[in-house]
Design goal:
By secondary structure, this protein is mostly beta strands. Helix content is 0%, strand content 51%. It contains no helices and eleven strands. A hairpin with a 6-residue loop joins strand 4 and strand 5 (48-54). The protein starts with a strand and ends with a strand. 27% of the residues are buried.
Length: 119
């Protein structure tokens, strides 16, 4: 059974860097058929896709966040990590990691982690 679990701080201060890690079990993140994504949902708004890293290692970022976002992975731990720099209160959201399959379905999700950006 594939499982994803987000971890990271529940609160960060404005201008700091947010770092969130997704730990995956049940499948290796280097498998070629899948893409490992980060998404977020701000309060009262819809879901926003942020970035993915493919099993082969290439990445793709949503243009609006590209300048502040990076994604990396630790294959020995089967984890991938999102970093978002220079956060503002507008980055307050529930952050999710998810798997995308080879026909672009988000087929497995983490439970989500709430992040509050506040002084």
């Amino acid at each position: 059974q594939v499982q994803l679990q987000e971890s990271g701080p529940g609160m960060v201060k404005p201008s700091q860097t947010l770092s969130l890690t997704c730990t995956v079990s049940g499948v290796t993140i280097t498998a070629n058929d899948f893409y490992w994504s980060w998404l977020r949902q701000p309060p009262g708004k819809g879901l926003e896709w942020i970035v993915y890293i493919a099993g082969a290692g290439f990445t793709y970022y949503t243009p609006s966040l590209r300048s502040r976002t990076s994604i990396s992975r630790d294959t020995s731990k089967n984890q991938f990590t999102l970093q978002l720099t220079s956060v503002t209160p507008e980055d307050t959201a529930i952050y999710y990691c998810a798997r995308v399959d080879d026909i672009d379905r988000f087929d497995f999700w983490g439970q989500g982690t709430q992040v509050l950006v506040s002084a």
